[in-house]
Amino acid sequence: MSNLNEAVAEAEGATLLLLDYELAVTGSLEWLRSLLPKQTKIAVYSAPGAPDEAMRWLHQGYDGYLPRTMSAPAIACAVQLMLRGERFVPSIAISAKAVPGVEVRMSDCGLSPRQREILTMVATGASNKHIARTLVVEEVTVKSHVKAIFRKLGVRSRTEAARFVLAPAHTWNAVPGSLPNTSSAAVAVRAAASPYLAR
C-alpha cells in the first residue's frame, strides 16, 4: 500500500489490519478506528526498534506489535491470538521496566532483589538454564527461586508470572497473588505465539 487511505479502503470487512510502521505513524489510532468496524483489530508490523517501542504501541491502544524478524508460523499464531481478543507482543520486544509500577509491585509481594531479577527474565521467556547462565548460578538455584516466586505471587505457571510483570497496575487487585483481569491487561504473553521464547 502506498498510503494509509488505501490500506483502510482495502481493509473494508477485514477482521484484522496489519499496518506497516511507515503507514502507522502517518495517522492516529482514533482516526483509524473511526473508519473501520469496531471489531477490527489493528496491529503494527515493524523492523525491531528500541526495547520499549512495542510497549509504546500497545499503550497507545493497538492490538499488537509484530517485528519483521518473526517467522510466518509465529505471525500466524499471533494473528490467531489477536482475533480471539488478546493483545500481542513477542517476548523479545518486551521491556518489563517499561511497565509503570512493576518494581514497586514486585517488592510489595515480598520478592527479594534476586527474585525480582529472575522474574523479569522469566517475563521475557528466558528458560531456567538461560537465566542460570546469565546470572552465573546453578540451574537448581534458579528453579528454587522460581518456585518461591510462584508461591509469593500465587501463580501456577510462567505465563501467569509474566502477566504479573507486564499487566498494568490497574488490572490487578490490591491483594498480592491475585491474577490480573486479562481482558484489560496490556499484553497477554503466550509461549506458542513467539519463536523467541526460550524453553
Please name the defining characteristics of this protein.
mainly alpha; elongated; disordered C terminus; Rossmann fold
Number of domains: 2
**Distance between the first and last residues' Cα:** 37 Å
What fraction, in percent, of the residue positions are helical?
40-55%
Report the mean per-residue pLDDT as an integer. Answer: 74
Just give the CATH class of the largest domain: Mainly Alpha
Report the CATH topology name of the largest domain: Arc Repressor Mutant, subunit A
Characterization of the model:
It is built from 10 helices and 3 strands; from the N terminus they run H-E-H-H-E-H-E-H-H-H-H-H-H. The protein has 199 residues and is mainly alpha-helical. It has a 3-stranded parallel β-sheet, with helices on both faces. Helix 7 (113-123) crosses helix 10 and helix 8 (128-135) packs across helix 9. 36% of the residues are buried.
Summarize this structure briefly:
The protein has ten helices and three strands, in the order αβααβαβαααααα. With 199 residues, it is mostly helical.
Please write out the topology.
Layout: H1 4-10, E1 16-20, H2 21-24, H3 29-35, E2 41-46, H4 53-60, E3 64-67, H5 72-83, H6 102-108, H7 113-123, H8 128-135, H9 139-153, H10 158-166
Parallel strand pairs: 1-2, 2-3
